[in-house]
Amino acid sequence: PILASAHDNGSICLWSIQGKLVNEILPFSKYPSVPLTALCTDISTKMLLAGSKEGHIMCWSIESFLEDPQNPKNQIKEELCWRAHPTEVVDLFHEEEKNVVVTASIDGSVRLWHAMNGYYIGYFGQPRMFDFSDISRLILPSDVNSFPIIIKEESKHMEKNKKFEYPLVLDRDK
């Protein structure tokens, strides 16, 4: 068994039952690290979901890591990140039968999202019925203007190894 804790610096710590830190992960996204406010897993613990103070949802694949945490090849892979609300996410859960993520925010809204791609399904209280069959229709709520980001291993690897040079130049005239 592994315990997960979310922190103000945007990291998630995974602990053994004995209290030993097993792994620490940070979201890989273009946004700066913000406090995480909600955590959940699916029933089969294949994925870990986190909600942030700024309304983002991040999804990691943890299945291979949990099978053998000591094996360095079994990494935790962030797969998806999307903006779910304009304000803080206070709760979320994954409904496995329909493969849906339900999110709640301090703005009072409760929204449904496709778990595989972060596409918006609808909100509780809407006049139409939820349509779970069409997972290819990309729409956004009116208060969200950024599309889901699917994180590929190649881009993650390239970002980590990117080197920047910032030479300091003394300009005596200034």
UniProtKB/TrEMBL annotation:
Signal peptide: none annotated. Keywords: Repeat, WD repeat. WD repeats lie at residues 82-113. InterPro entries: Beta-prop_IP5PC_F, WD-EF-hand_domain, WD40/YVTN_repeat-like_dom_sf, WD40_repeat_dom_sf, WD40_rpt. Residues 33-114 form the IP5PC-F beta-propeller domain. It comes from the Eukaryota. This is WDR64 protein. It comes from Caloenas nicobarica.
